[in-house]
Amino acid sequence: MADKKKNIFARIAAGFKGVISELKKVIWPSKAKLKSICAVVFVVIIFFAIYLYAVSEGGHWILNKVGFYDQVDPTESSVEISEESTAASETSAESSESSADSSETSAETTAST
After folding, report:
1. Alpha carbon distance 3, 19 (integer Å)
2. Percentage above 70 pLDDT, the chain
C-alpha cells in the first residue's frame, strides 16, 4: 500500500472543487434564449397531450361501436352456448347415423351382387 488514500473529507472537497470548475466552463443561455426554448417545450408538451387524448377517445369510441364494453349476463351466454353445443352434437349424431346407414346399404349391395 504505497499510495495512502486521502481521508473522506478531503475527497469530498476535491469533488466539489471539480464540480465548481466545470460549472465555470458552462455557457449559460440568455434570458431570451431560455424563454424561447421553454416556449417550444411547452408547445410540444401541449401538442402531444392533445394528440394522446384524441387517440384515447378515438379508441374508446371504436370499442364502444364494436360493443366491447357491453355488459353480458353470464347465465344468458352459457345458455346460448349450451344450446349451440347441443344443436352441434345433434347434427354430428345425425351425420354419423346417415354415414352408418350408407355403409350398411353399400354392404348389402355388395353382398347381393
Report:
1. 25
2. 63
d(CA 20, CA 33): 24
106 Rama sector, left if φ>0, alpha if ψ -120 to 50, beta otherwise: alpha
Torsions phi, psi for 27 (to 5 deg)? -95, 110
63 within 8 A of 69, measured Cβ to Cβ: yes
SS3 of residue 86 by DSSP:
helix
Question: For residues 36 and 29, what is the distance between their CA atoms, to the nearest angstrom?
Answer: 11
Distance of CA 25 to the CA centre of its chain: 46
The pLDDT assigned to 104 comes to 57
Q: Please, what is the Cα angle at 59 between 48 and 53, to 5 degrees? A: 25
Written as nine digits, the cell of 97 is 347415423
> Residue 73's closest CA among 81, 65, 85?
81
